[in-house]
Design goal:
This is Inosine-uridine preferring nucleoside hydrolase-like. The protein is α/β, with parallel strands linked by helices. It is built from 13 helices and 10 strands. It starts with a strand and ends with a helix. Bound molecules: beta-D-ribofuranose (BDR) and calcium ion (CA).
């Protein structure tokens, strides 16, 4: 059984990632920690419970985390994910927030990881604020993780939020800096450019979403807005390499639960730019080893897309 903690800012692709984890019988989700990001924290909490309800898994503990970045001004991604973070589809039967755990996300992260030393894989698909605060409180925490999978950052200077910045890193650059400075466990990064290269053809998306299940109907509803936006000429221009749907967070999650998915990666020291006028929040790759980083991360270059599609199909069955 793989023990997972997922740190989310649900978010359409976070929802996809969570549903993929829930569909794998070999995965045990110890808890879901929520962070502000795509949408304000209250929405993230509601959205997480909505996804768990559709999957009949309201037994999984959900924790309330940070509601704002460490230093940066707050930003959200309502244009893409919808104002409510899940495509602005009303849900009168959404579960109430009384189902949340009393313990806060950062405290829970520390406790869950310490109770399972060397066994937990953490998948972070949101700004890294919760994890950064947890590491500040408990610097030995990364040592106790089995692995860390992050969706965020970039390999070139192509941003999706600022000129050079990817949303999760740009939204809390200091948090991303802290995590990439202090991690000591094997760390894998699914960057923005990698996910653009791995986008899913629209024909596959139609096939995926037309499955006759309650989960597929839910996914179709919540992805409608972002898929319409992603299909627009303007967006296709922005992402250049993407000819279809970019399932950002789901690549990181899929790689975390299926070791054989990654087909190419490179090991390199990385950090995050904190001061640049245009480059603040951009991930910096130290190919020349000038930063003397003790630890390197694995930057994912390619994944087996056919395997990934199979996992996506299964996630809605
Ligand atoms: C990342 O930012 C969010 O919009 C997505 O959920 C993903 O985590 C992509 O840059
Ligand atoms: Ca996300």
């Amino acid at each position: 059984m793989k023990k997972l903690i997922i740190d989310v800012d649900i978010g359409v692709d976070d929802a996809q990632a969570l549903m993929m984890a829930l569909s794998d019988p070999d995965v045990q989700i110890l808890g879901i920690t929520c962070c502000f990001g795509n949408t304000p924290l209250e929405n993230v909490l509601k959205n997480t419970l909505r996804v768990l309800k559709v999957c009949n898994r309201l037994d999984i503990p959900v924790y309330k985390g940070c509601s704002e970045p460490l230093l940066a001004p707050k930003r959200h991604a309502g244009d893409y994910h919808g104002k409510d973070g899940l495509g602005d589809v009303p849900d009168p039967d959404a579960p109430g927030l009384e189902l949340l755990q009393k313990k806060k996300a950062v405290t829970a992260l520390i406790k869950m990881i310490k109770q399972n030393p060397g066994e937990v894989t953490l998948v972070a698909t949101a700004p890294l604020t919760n994890l950064a605060v947890a590491i500040q409180l408990e610097p030995s925490l990364p040592k106790k993780l089995k692995a860390l999978y992050i969706m965020g950052g970039n390999t070139d200077s192509r941003g999706n939020t600022t000129v050079c910045g990817e949303f999760n890193f740009v939204t809390d650059p200091e948090a991303a800096y802290i995590v990439l400075d202090r991690y000591t466990c094997p760390t894998y990064i699914a960057t923005w450019e990698f996910s653009c290269r791995s986008s899913l053809p629209w024909s596959f998306c139609d096939h995926w979403l037309s499955q006759k299940t309650e989960k597929a109907a839910f996914m179709k509803k919540i992805t409608d807005l972002s898929m319409t936006r992603a299909k627009s000429e303007e967006y296709q221009k922005e992402t250049t390499e993407g000819q279809g749907f970019n399932a950002c967070d789901t690549y990181a999650l899929a790689a975390a639960i299926n070791d054989t998915l990654i087909t190419e990666m490179e090991e390199v020291g990385v950090t995050v730019e904190l001061v640049g006028k245009y480059t603040r929040g951009m991930m910096v790759l130290d190919y020349m080893e000038l930063l003397n980083k003790k630890n390197k991360v694995f930057v994912i270059k390619t994944v087996d897309l056919e395997k990934f599609k199979e996992m996506l199909m299964k996630s809605l069955q």
